Amino acid sequence: MLPVLALTLEAPAAQALQLAPIQACSPLNERQVEGWFDLWNDALASGDPAQVAQLYDRHALLLPTLSAQLRDTPEAITAYFATFLARHPSGTVTHRQIELGCNLAVDEGTYRFALHDPEAQVDARYTFVYGRREGEWRILHHHSSLVPS
Predict the structure, then answer these.
(1) Beta bridge partners of 136
(2) What is the pLDDT, as a whole number, of residue 117?
(3) Residue 7: what pLDDT?
(4) Angstrom distance (rounded) from CA 117 to CA 110
(5) Could you tell me the mean pLDDT of each successive run of 10 residues in the chain, 149 residues long?
(6) What are the helix and strand counts (H, E) for the chain?
(7) Which residues contact 136 (CB under 8 A, 6 or more apart)?
């Protein structure tokens, strides 16, 4: 028979283990998830990296298409988009799968970017994970990688 372990926590440790309040389930539908890509693409068209970065959660992770550096702070995400937006990108989804959850949605597939200055077309695979935190939907994770030739 295994011994039973008793654990007594001091007040600060017990408080640290308290869970965050449970949020009510507020799912998105497929059209709303598609709308998030449109919102993100419109933010790209604005040319303002801060406008794009504000769509990401403050703890988001961006694994960008045209940079090997992962971006995990608002400042790093903004810096990536400052460089990317200089190419005046415009994205189009070419294939998509959407998975819906309670306060989470995943949009994954492929997209094509028309880039300008210099002119180019980039095909990439993507995953956006959207989550509802503190009553607002944000991008929690965004992974984009070039489609191998």
Answers:
(1) 133
(2) 73
(3) 46
(4) 23
(5) 49 52 83 97 97 97 94 98 95 97 97 88 96 94 94
(6) 4, 5
(7) none
If phi > 0 it is left, if psi is from -120 to 50 it is alpha, else beta; for residue 32 that is: alpha
Which tokens hold the place of 98? 């959407």
Closest CA to 37 of 146, 145, 129: 129
For 64-96, b/e burial (b = at least 16 CB within 10 A) is bbbeeeebeebebbbbbbeebbebebebeeeeb
Which residues are within 8 A (CB) of 25 and not within 5 positions of it... i.e. 6 or more apart? 102, 103
Look up tokens 């600060």; give the residue: 12
Query: Taking the complete model, does pTM exceed 0.70, yes or no?
Result: yes
Q: Which amino acid is at 51?
A: Q
User: Tokens standing for 48?
Assistant: 């303002």
| pLDDT value of position 29 | 96
**The token pair that represents 64 in the structure block:** 């960008």
β-sheet bridge partners, residue 20: none
pLDDT for position 54? 97
